[in-house]
Design a protein that fits this description.
alpha/beta; Rossmann fold; 6-stranded mixed beta sheet
């Protein structure tokens, strides 16, 4: 399996090269050159197939030219001591719970796989790398937990000051060791811009080995496809007609991973891209015109993205043709008021807590079902974070408090350690060179 830039670059690279480079030299994102046909594997999977078996099979099928079967199994075993769970809410609607990992968010799947894969490759080389991560919330905490204590790896997490929840900030800033949290004056878009600029800065890259661990990096995005395949396998016996994934979307890496699975042959009818009022992609899907704009602060803060990086990958996946994307992906935008109402209603009617991001997806799925009379349709909503990560919002909506997992309780008790910085490349360069430079 080879990869190349989403832009004009024709150079094809290996998975290992894409993993450590993060961003292509021309500023584009790495994407697969071709897509394997995995239909036979998907047909063989069923509700009794465990998550790790799926992850091992797909990893070896796609990366077998670089990773022997033993290496694939080793990476998966070290990455995943947790798995998704399917919660059937109604005859047509299921929730795929992706928050049972170390940071209680879906990004644990990509981050833990990436950490294990990097460790596997670095064990054979004598070098140290620095991972730069821009986060609007859950990415940073997942990466921090996944890479904490890993040999030959330092992690620098950039997050927007005052724009993540208290618990998210605690998860970012309490580990120490090889993990440093930079509290940036600005929005998530500023953090993301700084990371991209750093990767393209010649001076920095001559002195430091930089790579990424958010959905810019194919190594984190690729394993997110595993839980789409697992979710399908869990309910395939109930699927008699249309099968749809509804994906709460911000930077659109999660949705892109689902489209990868579809390109490999997963029988998905359509994807619903559910956003908050930062709806540049739903707007594009309606009009064919993409207009990036500054992000707006919402209750579903991990989706507060005004210029999603992975939209570039999505365009390539559909050959730059709006009508092809429009046929496969439908957009839906949800306000904060609607988010709170959905959280309150689901708790009242089903005694079920959901976080604000999942609420955006759930309401979008409900709306889709109401506009389609097909009673055999199945929709699976990706639940991206444990509700306890957003205690204030959940309590405001439901007047109740969900039980907090032990890993989150421990994070809340630890002292915050962050470095405040401005939002220019000079600010970031000065910090990196002072801390890690020769």
């Amino acid at each position: 399996m080879k990869f190349k830039s989403t832009r004009d670059g024709q150079e094809e690279v290996s998975f290992q090269e894409a993993l450590f480079k993060g961003l292509a030299p021309d500023g584009g994102l790495y994407h697969p050159v071709t897509f394997a046909d995995l239909k036979d594997d998907f047909n063989a999977f069923n509700e009794k197939t465990d998550f790790n078996s799926i992850a091992e099979t797909i990893t070896h099928r796609l990366l077998g030219d670089e990773l022997k079967e033993e290496s694939a199994k080793s990476i998966v075993k070290r990455a995943f001591d947790f798995f998704p769970k399917v919660n059937r809410v109604s005859d047509q609607l299921s929730i795929l719970e992706l928050f049972h990992g170390p940071s209680s968010a879906f990004k644990d799947f990509g981050a833990c796989f990436m950490a294990a894969a990097m460790e596997e490759f670095l064990a054979k080389e004598n070098k140290r790398i620095i991972i730069l991560v821009a986060t609007s919330g859950d990415t940073g905490s997942a990466v921090a937990r996944a890479f904490h204590g890993k040999k030959n790896i330092d992690v620098v997490i950039l997050y927007p000051s005052g724009r993540v929840s208290l618990l998210q900030e605690k998860q970012l800033t309490t580990l120490g060791g090889n993990v440093t949290a930079l509290e940036v004056a600005g929005a998530f878009d500023d953090c993301q811009r700084l990371v991209k600029e750093a990767f393209l800065d010649r001076t920095l890259n001559e002195k430091l080995i930089l790579t990424s661990a958010n959905s810019i990096n194919l190594g984190r995005l690729f394993p997110q496809s595993f839980y789409y395949i697992y979710g399908y396998a869990q309910i395939k016996e109930r699927i008699t007609d249309d099968f749809i994934f509804c994906v709460p979307s911000g930077n659109f890496g999660n949705l892109t991973a689902g489209i990868y699975a579809w390109k490999w042959g997963l029988p998905v009818t359509k994807f619903l891209a559910a956003t908050n009022v930062n709806d540049v992609v739903p707007e594009y899907l309606e009009t064919g015109i993409f207009k990036a704009r500054p992000s707006k602060k919402t209750l579903s803060n991990a989706m507060d993205v005004g210029n999603p990086s992975n939209f570039e990958r999505m365009k390539v996946l559909f050959n730059g043709k709006w009508h092809l994307m429009h046929e496969m992906v439908e957009g839906e935008a949800v306000t904060d008021a609607e988010t709170l109402e959905t959280m309150a209603r689901l708790y009242k009617e089903k005694n079920l807590f959901i976080d604000p991001h999942t609420a955006v997806g759930y309401l979008s799925a409900e709306r889709f079902l109401k506009t389609h009379s097909d009673k055999s349709m199945q929709i699976m909503v990706l639940s991206t974070a444990h509700p306890a990560k957003f205690l204030e919002t959940v309590e405001s909506a439901t007047s109740a408090v969900p039980e907090m997992p032990e890993n989150l309780k421990k994070a809340m008790e630890l002292p915050k350690e962050s470095v405040k910085t401005g939002n220019t490349l000079n600010d970031l360069s000065d910090f990196l060179l002072q801390k890690f430079g020769a």
